[in-house]
Amino acid sequence: MGRRKILIVEGKADRLRLQQILAEPVKIICTFGTISEYHLDELLAPYELDDLYVFVDADHTGERIRHLFKQNYPEATHLYTDEFHKEVETTPFQLLGEQLEKHFKIQQQFLDIKDE
């Protein structure tokens, strides 16, 4: 079996938003905001051989989570929302699709739309 793609986000709203646009099976794990190094290791233990992608908000909490990942999972790929929208859950579908399509299959309709 090949490596699975594991996408780490902060909350359920982020997960629901991304599930709408992904065109391939991807396990999406929520950190639910603030997380310690211990809880992060516990959360990701079943996925240590998989490809990890971190997509968190562009705010203090998101940067704290991102820093933890860079220290403990340097092989993880980091995806970024823009500074204007700051949150994954409020970023327009087209921008999410453009960011994600480098690593995931995206439903075409979300790459073609101009606004929501």
Question: Can you lay out the helices and strands and say which pair or pack?
Answer:
Blueprint: E1 5-9, H1 12-21, E2 27-30, H2 37-44, E3 51-56, H3 60-72, E4 77-80, H4 93-100, H5 109-112
Parallel strand pairs: 1-2, 1-3, 3-4
**What would you call the structural class?**
alpha/beta
**Gyration radius from CA atoms, angstroms:** 14 Å
CATH architecture: 3-Layer(aba) Sandwich
Q: What's the structural domain tally?
A: 1
Q: How many DSSP H or I helices?
A: 5
What does this structure look like?
There is one protein chain. The chain has five helices and four strands; from the N terminus they run βαβαβαβαα. The protein is globular. The protein is α/β, with parallel strands linked by helices and 116 residues long. A four-stranded parallel sheet has the order 2-1-3-4, sandwiched between helices. The mean pLDDT is 90. It has helices spanning 12-21, 37-44, 60-72, 93-100, 109-112, and strands spanning 5-9, 27-30, 51-56, 77-80.
Provide a short characterization of the protein structure.
With 116 residues, this protein is of the alpha/beta class. It has a single domain (5-112), classed as Dna Topoisomerase Vi A Subunit, Chain: A, domain 2, CATH 3.40.1360.10.
